[in-house]
UniProtKB/TrEMBL annotation:
Stated name of the protein: ABC transporter substrate-binding protein
Family classification: Belongs to the bacterial solute-binding protein 3 family.
Domain Solute-binding protein family 3/N-terminal: 54-279
Region Disordered, residue ranges: 14-33
GO CC terms: cell envelope
Biased composition (Polar residues): 15-31
SMART domains hit by this protein: PBPb
Primary location recorded for the protein, binned into one broad class: other
Localization per Swiss-Prot or TrEMBL: Cell envelope
Native organism: Mycolicibacterium anyangense
Keywords carried by this UniProt record: Signal
PANTHER family, sorted: ARGININE-BINDING EXTRACELLULAR PROTEIN ARTP, MEMBRANE-BOUND LYTIC MUREIN TRANSGLYCOSYLASE F
Any Pfam family the entry gives: SBP_bac_3
Length: 292
């Protein structure tokens, strides 16, 4: 998928477990953070975008809490609230166009979209095709029940829930389990679920000792659990999320300046807080900061 972890399907917590204590339902929207136009930043926009009054954004759905649809079909999420604030700062209106993930960067190169917004990991390979304005750091984060601490680096013999086909299921946990058995310790029991909601509920209900997922996904699950979950350890294997734009486009600097303004004003922190993803906030946005 878009980020470090390949996650399929809806990641909203919907209480899929058959037990009687489901986790909290998803926050399908947040209070929009007001952002006013900043004339000197808006003046840096390419003329065609400035004249259109729109920022055409290619997006792939779903990837909660970053971008997904609420019950009415409206596209919502952390990325959406942040992009709306960016557009307002630039005196524009964001117009979201759904796309297959693999088609977003080619569509930016062709000029169909001005920018992409789908939790893209900024990588050296992708930088050959587009420029990235980095706005967030994501990695892997574990969650546990309060009072039942677990060390992600020493989980031998523990049950850990994951969504099937993610990097955690295919790479992270098998490697950690092998280290356990190589040292003569019990293997990690990897509990695989079709959806992240079920994996999360397994921890809430005591069926698993912990869960491992992409850090914004875990942070969102913690926020939605209303105290039934907490972080286990810190985020690891971090890399930046970035907004892709055409290679060499001055739009990159415009987005960067707008994000710097939102960081300084406190709006960026407020938006991240609304979605429970403060742990991935950046303090200074850079262009093409990915190194892997």
């Amino acid at each position: 998928m878009a980020g470090i972890v390949a996650v399929a399907g809806s990641l909203a917590l919907s209480g899929c477990s058959s037990k009687s204590e489901p986790s909290a339902g998803p926050s399908e929207s947040s209070t929009a953070v007001k952002a006013d136009k900043v004339d000197d930043i808006a003046a840096t926009l390419p003329d065609d975008i400035k004249k259109s009054g729109k920022l055409i954004v290619g997006v792939n759905i779903p990837y909660a809490p970053n971008e997904f649809k609420d019950a009415s079909g409206k596209i919502v999420g952390f990325d959406v609230d942040l992009m709306n604030a960016i557009a307002s700062t630039l005196g524009l209106t964001a117009e979201y166009r759904e796309s297959d993930f693999a088609k977003i960067i080619p569509s930016i190169q062709q000029g169909t979209y001005n920018v992409g917004m789908s939790s893209f990991t900024d990588t050296k390979e992708r930088q050959a095709s587009v420029d990235f304005v980095d706005y967030f750091n994501a990695g892997i984060l574990w969650a546990q029940r309060p009072g039942s601490p677990i060390d992600p680096n020493n989980a031998c013999g523990k049950k850990v829930a994951v969504q099937a086909t993610t990097t955690e299921e295919t790479d992270e946990l098998p490697a950690k389990s092998k280290k356990c058995t190589d040292e003569g310790k019990p293997a990690i029991e990897i509990l695989k679920f079709d959806g992240q909601d079920a994996a999360t509920n397994a921890v809430v209900l005591g069926q698993a000792d912990a869960m491992s997922a992409d850090s914004p996904v875990t942070a969102y699950a913690i926020k939605q659990s209303k105290g039934k979950l907490e972080a286990a350890g810190e985020i690891f294997d971090s890399a930046p999320y970035g907004w892709p734009v055409q290679k060499g486009s001055p739009l990159a600097q415009s987005l960067q300046k707008a994000l710097e303004h939102l960081i300084q004003s406190g709006a960026y922190k407020e938006i991240a807080g609304n979605w429970g993803v403060e742990a991935g906030m950046v303090t200074k946005p850079v262009i093409n900061g990915g190194t892997t």
